[in-house]
Write a structure and sequence with these properties.
Number of strands: 0
Radius of gyration: 17 Å
Shape: elongated
Largest sheet: none
Structural class: mainly alpha
Distance between the termini: 35 Å
Length: about 70
């Protein structure tokens, strides 16, 4: 399955992150940010993939340490 985002999705996520960053820097971390369902899904997929990879690396370290 191809998990690369379409350009519009990437732009949507990037613009939401920029908007959130501006709000936090301005001292308004509670400001709402609009994000599309596809951008939120993409963020979730990315975080899930990173978590899986971290677990794989931890397991590799444990196997090497037990030798």
């Amino acid at each position: 399955m191809n998990r690369q985002p379409a350009r519009g999705q990437r732009t949507d996520l990037e613009s939401a992150l920029r908007e959130a960053s501006r709000a936090v820097r301005a001292g308004r971390p509670e400001d709402p940010v609009t994000i599309s369902a596809s951008a939120l899904w993409l963020l979730n997929e990315t975080l899930h993939a990173q978590s899986e990879r971290i677990e794989q690396l931890k397991n590799m370290q444990l196997k090497k340490a037990s030798r």
